[in-house]
Specification:
Blueprint: H1 4-20, E1 25-28, H2 29-45, E2 55-59, H3 67-71, H4 74-86, E3 89-91, E4 94-100, E5 105-107, H5 109-113, E6 120-129, H6 136-140, E7 145-146, H7 150-155, E8 160-163, E9 170-173, H8 175-186, H9 192-208, H10 216-220, H11 226-232, H12 237-247, H13 251-259
Parallel strand pairs: 1-9, 2-6, 6-7
Antiparallel strand pairs: 1-2, 3-4, 4-5, 4-6, 8-9
Length: 263
């Protein structure tokens, strides 16, 4: 689905970023799904699950914090560290750096301006919060990108899993909560490849995570209403076809598994 250079580079930077982030932080998005399902997916399919191009990190923010508290928060310190130590640049609600696809090297802003766009790969890091502070842009310098479901992970340890492999205090959302965030995001995708990736991730979490199959729906309903699930799980035949082809499963299998979430 993605070029191996892109996902390999993204994972390399994920590890560099984890060394710089302030703890505790939640890993979200595609890499969170990868780390949740890859072991089981590899056993069955004899290859690794799809990697991610973007890196999504989740942070707790209290809307009632003072400007000084927000300035000294984990997200503010992580942002400063990624800009100063890894040379990421701010852009709207995210950070990025650019690479030459053929030469596989990092580019400065000036160098990137002189390269044709089809030779450029932009690595994005999204810093996502559970609550939008009214002075977020003023204090942090970026617009806030929020995922309200994150609050469940920060408020209750039963909704998160501590990752061991990176030797830092990094959390994954438990599979049913991660699934809920994917159901949340898929409805708002304006790029086809991101929507297809979300559909793949939804199926993968249903099929290759360690969730109890009989309890999946009940667990997801703790975070999303049935109406929201029904509205967002509305995929075309073409989307199912593309997603099933990427994962190497039948369209029928994908339809049956995903429809288990519907009422």
């Amino acid at each position: 689905m993605y070029e191996s250079f892109e996902t390999k580079l993204s994972f390399e930077y994920l590890q560099k970023i984890i060394d710089k982030i302030k703890e505790p932080t939640c890993l979200l998005g595609g890499w969170a799904v990868y780390l949740t399902v890859n072991e089981n997916y590899r056993k069955l399919m004899h290859r690794d699950y799809i990697g991610s191009r973007d890196i999504d990190l989740g942070f707790h923010v209290d809307k009632n914090w003072s400007s000084e508290e927000l300035k000294s928060s984990f997200i503010a310190k992580t942002l400063m560290s990624l800009e100063k130590e890894l040379d990421f640049k701010p852009l709207a609600f995210r950070l990025f750096k650019q690479f030459h696809i053929d030469e596989k090297k990092e580019l400065t802003e000036e160098e990137a301006k002189n390269i044709a766009t089809h030779f450029l790969f932009s690595l994005y890091v999204d810093l996502i919060v559970d609550n939008i502070h009214p002075k977020f842009k003023e204090v942090i310098g970026l617009f806030a990108l929020d995922e309200p479901l994150l609050k469940f992970a920060f408020e209750d340890k039963n909704n998160r899993i501590e990752l061991k492999q990176f030797k830092r205090k990094l959390w994954l959302l438990k599979p049913s909560l991660l699934l809920a965030t994917k159901i949340n995001s898929v409805a708002n995708r304006d790029k086809e490849h991101k929507r297809i990736k979300d559909i793949c991730d939804i199926y993968a979490l249903l099929s290759y995570s360690d969730m109890n199959m009989k309890k999946i729906k009940d667990d997801v309903l703790k975070f999303l209403s049935q109406d929201k699930i029904n509205k967002n799980i509305n995929f075309s035949k073409e989307e199912i076809n593309k997603s099933s082809s990427i994962l190497g499963v039948s369209e029928k299998e994908m339809e049956i598994r995903i429809s288990s979430l519907l009422f």
